Amino acid sequence: xxxxxxxPSKNVRDxxxxxxxxxxxxxxxxxxxxxxFLPMLLGRKxxxxxxxxxxxxxxxxxYFSGGGLQLADGTGAGGFQSQSSGANVACxxxxxxxxxxxxxxxxQTWGKLFEQQGERYRPATLTFYDQTGDSGCGTAQAAMxxxxxxxxxxxxxxxxxxxxxxxxxxxxGDFAQAYVIAHEVGHHIQNLAGVADQVSxxxxxxxxxxxxxxxxxxxxxxxxxxxxxxxxxxxxMEPGDVEExxxxxxxxxxxxxxxxAGQRPVESMFTHGSxxxxxxxxxxxxxxxxxxxxxxxxxxxx
Length: 302
What we know:
Low-confidence stretches: 18-88
Strand content: 5-15%
């Protein structure tokens, strides 16, 4: 993907090695809910500290799931400040620079889409850390994979993740990396649109299986939003990019990860969607370029 002409986003921080103490988080379930993107975009906002969108920190096979849904206890809401390594962001490695340029591209793209709806886009902040760090939702750990924290509207990324993704899962290529970041920004869109708040409320009164099913819809919608971002930047796409993205989506499907961990896939335990589902919703975003097509909460959509 050609992003070399883009200046890196300024909404980036680097916590360096061992960011320090976090604020704690929690867990929860969910219930089916019909939501659509555009009405939520125009009217609903998310309160602080409601949920943490994070990869599976508890189960090792969920390392690369990228963005699981858990209820947060809210203790990190308000007053959180990143322990950055310096006043200015350091997008100083090739992978970090590319991530900063991807974030800049998402800012341009979603800024335009929000403006078309009469809204102002508030960018997410990307924070790099090494092994452990701080977030407004709790301690950031490499085992979580990339995650989004609504309490501070931040995407958190361990600096070694892309190397692990390439070597352990075979999800190689710059667009595979871009897809991961765009997926987490997709969770930011859900935050701004109020979808995350609605899901969090529904989860409080649901069974574990119902909660997992709703969580899957959250993840698939974020996949679709990643596809929308890519479609809106089709002029920057290169041959093989789509295949790299779809390969990455397949690699982080729940069924594929479970088999890789020696476990039998059980659909009621899925929290991110099967490989086929993740590929299908990424492809839908790529084909339509329309956020309104990403209504994974519609009846029969999943």
